[in-house]
Amino acid sequence: SIIMSIFSFLLTVSLSGVNLSSTRLVAKEHSYGNVGNIKIIIRDCLKYCLFFSILSILLLLSFKNYIFNIIFEKSIDIKLIYLLSLTLPFCSISSCLNGYFMAVEKMKPIIISQTIEVISQILISVIFYNLGFFSTTYNICFTLILSLLISDFLSFIYLIKVYSKDNKIYKKIKATQKNFKKDVIKISLPVALTSYI
Q: Alpha-carbon Rg of the chain, whole angstroms?
């Protein structure tokens, strides 16, 4: 519970409203028939995702002593939150791609990715439980975090694979705009700041 409360804040920083910006911008260009711009929107959104994912990991590293000594009261190994932080880039990029699929009205990849995530998380936990790995609190936390990391990664791989098929179509179509960085920031940052507060 304590680990997840820290992680949820880091995840909020990592996502930073990117889902909304990818959904809105892609939907707008898709409705206007400017599908060549979609690849640029997603590219700029992915750069935004990577920036804020790295920022959230740097925040963790900067405040590690406070988190370990004050919040965890030295009762939980900080390596667990380090392990969990590896999921941040995958979660952020997956959120961006989910926004894309919502915008182009392709709900199937979103549903399948969430199903992959849940089933793999359960299977990994069950396997570790049957191996007798649930003997200590640390092992239980480690197993749950590892299952979350692997399930997020598998979901991310699936979404990237499906998007790359669509991206091949967009590559053939000329874009009418060079970048959407300002548009991404204009939509995402107000949402992000509200979430941080």
A: 19
